[in-house]
Amino acid sequence: MTIRKLTLSTIAFAVALFIAAQWFVLSVVVMQSFQEVEAEDVERNVARVEDALQNRLEAIEDSLFTWSQWDDSFRFIAGNNPGFVKDNIASTVFTGMKINYFVMLDPDLGVVLEKGFDLAQKREALVPPSLKARLTQESHLFAIRDPSQSVKGLLLLPEGPLMTVAAPITDTQGTKAPNGYVLFARYLDAPEIAHLGRDTHLDVSLHPLSASPDRIVVHPKSDSLIQGLTALKDLEGKPVLDLSVQMPRRVHQQARITHYFLLVCIVVVGLALGAIFLVLLELTVIRRLLRLGREVESVTRTRDFDHQVPSSGNDEIGRLGQHINLMLHTLGQGDHASPSAPADHAANR
């Protein structure tokens, strides 16, 4: 193999190794960083939906306090306000506060008032037995006695999950001891989930429980879609449903564009550096060595020891040429001296 081919092969191998190393760095380090950013973005958006859900519970809580801290409610539970239902409970109560169920209970959790309303059909509905069965002393809904506080969270019923808030009933000033409880509930149904999605500008859905209850699970569904799952907990802190958030993989798509752009840049830079190294070696080393080799080969063929090979340059190749010229000069002197030797020998005889 000639020195030119060997040099070209070496540079080509070095460039290929450089590109492969950079590809590995891009694939493992850069893409991994983009994946972490993407996962953090999904987790942040799942948390946004959880916050939006909590805001809905707090909105129900605010409405509930106007009823739980009210003289009329306090007197009604005590049996001193017979016109309470007629004067205050109408369909506008449900549509205005966006609730499905309104229940008032005495201190022993006996149901004093129960009203239901179908928000989709705009008509009255019955309070389901499954909800009334949860209104017991063991329920977390009635674990507090402070009328300035409430208990809020999810109740999973056969009819669907309910956003539920309950608080003790007191007078408007909040000075009297509670004499019962009031409960508001709203279904976390498909229209509510759709509304939640519109508010957060995300694709939100509920699914049977499958995710870990302690963390948000992120996994790609395709090259264009990624999903985040987290478990929603009920009033007792037990996971009951999966909250799913699906998002376009904009970070991933941008990462791929960046990845391929950087790869093209690396290939171009690698090839350019290889070409530059090859040209420099050709001009400073290979061409001079090949020329020196041809001159030496010519001297060998012609035995012209007076010939001078190129010796320009103050580097190893230039010094090599100088040494070859010195050697040729020495050989030339010896060659010129050898014909006189026989004549001198004859004269001495």
Can you walk through the features of this model?
This protein has 349 residues and is of the alpha+beta class. The chain folds into two domains: 3-12 and 253-336, no CATH class; 21-249, 2-Layer Sandwich (Beta-Lactamase). The protein contains nine helices and ten strands. It has helices at 3-68, 71-77, 84-88, 91-97, 129-132, 190-200, 250-302, 316-337, 340-348, and strands at 101-105, 111-118, 123-125, 151-157, 160-168, 181-187, 203-208, 217-220, 225-233, 239-248. Strands 3-2-1-6-5-4 form a six-stranded antiparallel β-sheet, with helices on one face. The longest helix has 66 residues, at 3-68. The radius of gyration is 45 Å and the shape is rod-shaped. The mean pLDDT is 86.
Strand order of the largest sheet: 3-2-1-6-5-4
Question: Per DSSP, what share of the residues sits in E-state strands of 2 or more residues?
Answer: 15-25%
- SSE ordering: HHHHEEEHEEEHEEEEHHH
The tally of beta strands, per DSSP, is 10
- If you consult CATH, what is the topology of the largest domain? Beta-Lactamase
CATH class of the largest domain: Alpha Beta
- Summed up, the helix count is 9
Low-confidence stretches: none
In CATH, what is the homologous superfamily of the largest domain?
Answer: PAS domain
Please state the average pLDDT score. Answer: 86
Helix- and strand-based class?
alpha+beta
Q: Taking Cα atoms only, what radius of gyration do you get, to the nearest Å? A: 45 Å
Helix content, binned percent: 40-55%
* Largest sheet geometry: 6 strands, antiparallel
CATH architectural grouping of the largest domain = 2-Layer Sandwich
N-to-C CA distance: 57 Å
Number of domains: 2
Please tell me what the overall shape is. rod-shaped
